[in-house]
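Annex B. Sample input.
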Amino acid sequence: MVKICNYGFDESFIEEHRDMHGIAYTQNVLSGRYKNLILWYLKEKGRRFGEIKKFLTSISQGSLTKQLKELESDGIINRTVYAEVPPKVVYSLTNKGQALMPIIDMMEEYGKEYGKEYGRV
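Annex B, continued. Sample output.
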């Protein structure tokens, strides 16, 4: 996982507010332009790389690969490789990833409710 940023807080503040570590950890896991959308897309079933790429049309192959590797490294998704020709790789949520779904669902509901103000939902 990427290091949780402590910039902007002095050591005494961090020591007095250890509970914010959970917020910083979760933010760090979900940081990345497409991670929330990848997780939302995987919530129903496992998907192949090409399916995810087709869903996220504006993402480059390199960026998608990076986001998937970070999510895998954080234990949020599984990468299962099937011994076939050509190789089949399926990405799916781990139990830790499933535990994030209430947060993703709340983000979806929040966007539906308040995104109307900007005419984007």
